[in-house]
Amino acid sequence: MLLALILGxxxxxxxxxxxxxxxxVLLHFLRRNAHRAAPAGSRRDIxxxxxxxxxxxxxxxxxxxxxxxxxxxxxVVSGALPDLPTAVYFSAVSYSTLGFGDIVLGPQWRIFGAxxxxxxxxxxxxxxxxxxxxxxxxxxxxxxxxxxxxxTAPKRRRK
Length: 159
Fold this sequence. Notes:
Blueprint: H1 2-33, H2 43-78, H3 84-95, H4 110-137, H5 145-152
């Protein structure tokens, strides 16, 4: 159990560092391409903003994928799971906190799986906050509701 605790803590540190590196790479990408994301004025501006958000979202998926694969390798190397395909599946289910339960770790490794679940939960939350920040910085969610209401409201007749 001590080995599982040490490995779980070490993998949490590794996953957090990988996640931080992924976020920093995505921030660098955004800074290099910020000039292409003008505030939405034309259809072209909106398409550029959408392309940036899609690229950043895919980058977040890749970052989570790397973390899931690192946990999978740790499961195989430690002997907690027999092969890589099983370990990748178990890791994805644990990291996402889905937890089907069709594959379970032995009693001595269960705490290691719990570490991955908590780590995944926190890192997915971090990614969600990051994506919300990116979206709001690009002003994709802003909308002038008063102008919209004035354009679409039926005209009233005066008596």
